[in-house]
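<instruction>
Derive structure tokens from the sequence
<entry> Chain with its tokenised backbone below:
===
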Amino acid sequence: MKEYGHEFAEYLYHTPSEYEKNGGLWVIRTGKNKAKPNYQVGPKVIECYSVHAVIKGCVAFTHGDETVYLRKGALFCLYPGLRYSYRLGEDEENLRMYWLAFQGNQAEPLLERIGFSREKPYVTERWMPEHEQAMTHIQDLVRDHAGYDEILLQSKLYQLFESLSRKAGERVFHHGTTDWLEKCIQYMDTHYMEGVTVTDVVEVAGVHRSHVYQECSNVLGLSPMQYLIRLRMKKSAELLKDRGLNITDIALSVGYPDLYSFSRAFSKYYGMSPTQYQKRSTN
């Protein structure tokens, strides 16, 4: 690490390739530091997202009107355009941190899975030795400007986010639900066009059918069947705008066994037949 006015640090900067930018997440910069007694950063704003992990000591992190004292194992996140500052906390032990700055349209959803939000951009008791290994690997790849592997860097980046979204063996999901319900929602989102049924969803859940119904209703405001219908109806409405597809093609594409059952479901949902909807949307 190099000595600076208020810290010893290593700053690693990365210029993402077009391949990386075509993905949902890419590294901008990363690094590590050991704070001096006069350590302070900000107040300022940054242009990207940046997660900082407290490895040792204590940091006083200020966001908005709140200042929190974060110790070993805690993480805090800087959001683009939001004013922040942080400094050495009330601790005689030297502050040490890792950080990772990144961009991409998946950044904020992935941060939510860890437990961050713009209103509460920190979590405690999260950083583990496995995360340090993943971070070190990312930094090694970024350090090797000429020979780094784009796919491996992307893989390690997602691996780090996946492992940070676990706490005490339990996943943290943006729906705020248990593991089985998240799997159900992802299953329906992925396979609704393949004619999956509520029975299939219950099998994925591995819990009683009535429990699936209750939890889906609490989280989504819809039963599993209603959620599947909504997914199919939205997709069918989108496909009806394509004059190259006939209505039977669309019915079979969104998981219905025949034109009749599709037309009945569509008319009930939208209050008009698929033919009427298609004429209206293409006029």
Observations:
- The radius of gyration is 24 Å.
- Residues 184 and 201 are 6 Å apart (CA to CA).
